[in-house]
Design a protein that fits this description.
single chain, 453 residues, alpha/beta, TIM Barrel, 2 domains, 8-stranded parallel beta sheet, 24% helix, globular, Apiosidase-like_cat_dom, Glycoside hydrolase family 140 protein
Length: 453
């Protein structure tokens, strides 16, 4: 028998949407920052000891969410997991294979012990909306409800799960509306958990949010989009965040799949090697700018890790290393620094403010993002390129401020000391030019905030 799960589910408050509708928190009021990793093929391709190795690594780096698929993308209905088990009997969603789900049971427990949330996708989207991929399409509105209800009942007592529908597919495709199928799957989850679950939707790429199709669906709690890997550098994810946050009813939103570290740039329909790969600098730019625009978090991804590339697997899209080697790539550490920075200050109810930077935020590769705390006691600006900026400080009433630079590459802070606040103040990054990205932090000198070293 293969199982690592021990003991009972940890006594821990569930995750809920915050009061303003734009953030996440636990039921006891503790704010939650979504720092995800795309471990898409986790259950399909790894053994339990390998899953434990992966979770240990991600927890140590500060990740809070692992996104993984139950019915996997790459022939997940016909190709068994490493233990020889398929997820469904006869590819029937109403006949789950208990032996397959014991691996997921153990993973849920291991994640809980490491204080990790699992963003579970009941199925990859090709099982509902084929469009491309292996499929087959096996879901309709009837069996989608039954499958959702079975999943919800099995995991109703586990508090470290967020459900993610969609799986890289739009809910409406080529004139066909698949929303009734997703609606019933969500209803099954809700009915089985008595409404005590959060549900998100992960659409296809192109920087198009789930809000484009699902804004009025009452089962959806969290919007997602993916700025992705096929539209080059500096996809304006910040615009998608800000657009979502203007909608009613209010929902949190996040980039659930920005450009993966070490993913080839624009590999479709044919990759030009001269385009190169997305590296850690590209990851930082996309993650910081969407979060600073008001997202409730962001999901990192590595091209070898989502597919768990190893000697056992066929290479997909020019992956340049295996998953074990990829776990300690620079970007994986650096997104943890982002979480550390955001959580060092009150971060629910942050206010994205384009007026903070005199002269505007810039465009594309030079685009900055800026926000302030809702009580106007601090502000942060992300600069993707080192330079001098002028800040409009009239939002803050304090006569004296503290200012410091935060290095997204290293997580280190460079203090500028106490300064007299002026309505307009100039600041110059410690280093200048491309790949010298920095965060400027200004705050009321009389406030006692956490000091980052």
């Amino acid at each position: 028998m293969y199982s690592i799960a021990v003991g009972q589910p940890q006594e821990k408050k569930r995750l809920i949407v915050s009061g303003d509708g734009h953030g996440l928190q636990f039921e006891n009021g503790t704010p939650f920052f979504w720092l995800g990793d795309t471990g898409w093929e986790l259950f399909h391709r790894l053994t339990l000891p390998e899953i434990e190795q992966y979770l240990d690594n991600r927890a140590a780096k500060g990740f809070t969410v692992i996104q993984a698929i139950v019915l996997a993308e790459f022939d997940g209905l016909k190709r068994p997991n490493p233990y020889g088990e398929l997820p469904l009997i006869d590819q029937d969603p109403t006949k789950p294979n208990d032996a397959y789900f014991k691996v997921i049971d153990s993973t849920v427990q291991m994640a809980s012990e490491r204080k990790l949330i699992l963003g579970l996708l009941p199925t990859w989207g090709d099982k509902v909306t084929k469009a491309w991929g292996t499929g087959p399409m096996i879901f309709d509105s009837v069996n989608a409800y039954a499958y959702g209800h079975w999943l919800g009942k099995r995991y109703q007592d586990r508090q470290n799960i967020v459900w993610i529908l969609g799986g890289d597919r739009p809910p409406v495709f080529e004139g066909k509306d698949f929303r009734p199928v997703w609606r019933q799957m969500a209803k099954g989850l809700r009915d089985a958990t008595k409404g005590r679950c959060l549900i998100a939707y992960h659409p296809w790429g192109g920087n198009v949010s789930s809000s484009s199709w699902l804004q009025q669906e009452d089962w959806l709690d969290i919007h997602m989009f993916q700025s992705g890997h096929g539209d080059g550098h500096d996809v304006p994810s910040w615009k998608t965040v800000k657009r979502d946050l203007q909608l009613q009813p209010a929902r949190p939103t996040l980039d659930g799949e920005p450009n993966y570290e070490d993913h080839p740039v624009n590999p479709w329909p044919k990759w030009n090697p001269d385009n190169g790969y997305f590296r850690d600098y590209d990851v930082r730019k996309q993650c910081y700018r969407s979060v600073f625009a008001g997202a409730c978090g962001v999901t990192y991804g590595h091209h070898a890790i989502w597919q768990f590339m190893s000697a056992r697997e066929e290479l997909i899209n020019f992956a340049d290393r295996g998953w074990v080697n990829a776990m300690d790539r620079p970007g994986a550490f650096q997104v943890g620094y982002l979480r550390k920075l955001i959580e060092s200050r009150p971060f629910l109810n942050r206010v994205a403010d384009s007026n903070l930077v005199v002269g505007g935020l810039g465009v594309r590769s030079e685009h900055m993002e800026a926000f302030r705390g809702d009580e106007n006691h601090y502000a942060m600006v992300y600069l993707p390129i080192g330079r001098t900026i002028e800040l409009n400080m009239s939002f803050m009433k304090a006569k004296e401020i503290k200012a410091w630079w935060f290095n997204p590459k290293t997580g280190e802070a460079t203090p500028l000391g106490h300064l007299k606040r002026l309505d307009k103040m100039k600041f110059t990054t410690p280093t200048q030019g491309k790949e010298n990205d920095w965060v400027l932090v200004v705050e009321d000198a009389n406030r006692k905030y956490q000091t980052l070293q």
